[in-house]
Amino acid sequence: MITIKNLHASVDGKEILKGLSLEVKDGEVHAIMGPNGSGKSTLASVLAGKSEYEVTAGEVIFNGKNLLELSAEDRAREGVFLAFQYPVEIPGVSNINFLKTSINEIRAYKGLGPIEPKEFLAMVKEKQKLVELDGKLTGRSVNEGFSGGEKKRNEIFQMAMLEPSLGILDETDSGLDIDALRIVANGVNKLRDAKRSFILVTHYQRLLDYIVPDFVHVLYNGRIVKSGTKELALELEEKGYDWLKSESVEA
Amino acid sequence: MNATATITFKDSLLAHFEQSLPSLFGDAQLRRKAALYFEEKGIPNRKWEDYKYINPEAVLKSDFGFRTNRMREITPHDINEFKLVKDSIVIVIANGIYSAELSPMNTLPVGITISNIADAVVSNEIAKKHYAKYAKFDADPFVALNTAMCAGGVFVHVAKNVQTKTPIQIIHVSNFETPSIAQPRNLIVVEESAEAIVIESYETIGPIKTFLNTLTEVYVGPNAKFDHYRIQTEGENAFQMNTLQASVCGNSLYNTYTFTLGGIFTRNNLNILFTEKNGEAHLYGLYPITNSQVVDNHTIVDHAVPNCMSNELYKGVVNEKASATFNGKIFVRPDAQKTNAFQTNRNILLSDDATVNTKPQLEIYADDVKCSHGTSTGKVNEDAMFYLQARGIGKESARALLIRAFAEEVVDQVKIEELRDYIDKRIDSILK
Ligand SMILES: Nc1ncnc2c1ncn2[C@@H]1O[C@H](COP(=O)(O)OP(=O)(O)OP(=O)(O)O)[C@@H](O)[C@H]1O
Ligand SMILES: [Mg+2]
Question: What is the CATH number of the domain that holds A139?
Fold first, then answer.
């Protein structure tokens, strides 16, 4: 699915990713944990194509294509989806209109005609149910006046609508109440299949009780300093990050 | 240099005034006073505080003529193209003069009077009572010039208690043979407890340069409701000074919508005076402009009496080398307690060569008031751009989507669907 090799990226001349490597195979779920400021959102943004981040070294191959050469929109059209840590509010652009434009541009990229309005509406209905998103919200402007939890659910709703091959979820669980966490996790689990992979950025082991990952990595100081399975998350919950910090300095 | 070059445009304008005065309608005395005032002040230029960012003096050179007979034909077919709302009453001001042929008045609803202002000022008592009462010629040289030289326009009267939902569209259209200045003058009187909708639109046919110095006076009677749209869609050959002077009585609602979608040089002076308690006014403006368009919106809301409310929202999208100015004055006079006055001006710059000048001016002399103002000028929101792109939406459509959304806050205020659709289409074509 995606192979990241020795990725270095900086913003405003400050290096944040310092040689990060990661391989995610088809159908796998990888969790990335790590202290605040270690570069998790930066990794997500770099993969999604945010232009203010400058990649200074390394490569990213996504389904055989050099991802770093593609524009942000082409990455999305190729099947990369980023659920934002802080989804932006866009007053005046209705959720529905936005989604339809999005789906149609992705279809056009694949040489398909616009989606049938009927099919689109049926899909909206179905996917709304999946994340138990209030129908009223989809009629409103993108994220405008949404609560924190509603914004996160809207991200998963969009992911369900766009059916990407790689979903990158940046702290989608932060700020969710127990019920919402279960709903969101359930939404992700339903989207899991042999062809679709996920990178979950999270601070909490709890999410991983719901979405069981194949691998867990610790990102620290711009690099993956430890990888393991689900048990690593439990160990982190117990011991924190300090033992890894000192280990990585020694390394 | 030949000798005639030293005769300025102003001189020839005044000479023409003397010549044509006997044929002009109304009070010759008033016209003469106004002409004298104009002679004394001259044509404003950048040295004038109120004309810092727009220079009529540089525009008004001798190549503009003022003989309105040098014009090309305007046909009913042309007018049909300019009609914005299917079910409406259409009035045509052709090259600054009321056109009876193009304004068929056979099916006017009861209580609505529409006539050539040149006739009304002589024969209609109501027109006589209101004419030149609100726009004072010593307020601005262009008001003076219009007062001195206007040769036509329309008088619209909506009688007491008459509530009409049918829009009245006043189409100002120019089609001159040689570069010309035209000075239409309109008077709209909406009486007590009446309701009216007026759309003033501005059009040009053909490529000849025109300068329109238009003046509209509005009286909104007690407890009346008046929606007043002004839509500028002239061509790139069009220069315009547009003054609207409104007087708003108690318990009435006056809504203005100023859309500048065309023209190369447009100055809108929109002045509203509250004369009695509990008046309410909304001022909406939108100027999506490009190329080398220059647009200058000057508004004055004068809270001369207590308990009135005004709300102003102007938005601009400025592309290429275009330049936009917003200057919003709000006066709250010493007696005007319990005033609510709000003002917002927001702009998006789409190019590095585009400019925006924005200046709110609040002068508040009463203490028990609620007033606020806010301005912003910036580029398209980068985070929103990335969000849309990250969902597969291309850069260009993402930008268009965001700009449309920005403009929509103003367009949404338009209550007539046909008009909204028309404005949306014009905005799309400007953004391309
Ligand atoms: N646009 C930017 N300009 C300057 N510094 C930035 C920018 N974006 C990120 N950084 C810095 O890069 C570092 C990594 O930030 P990042 O957001 O990737 O961390 P994170 O691991 O996602 O943290 P958190 O767990 O708090 O979300 C931080 O020190 C942050 O301040
Ligand atoms: Mg983060």
Answer: 3.40.50.300
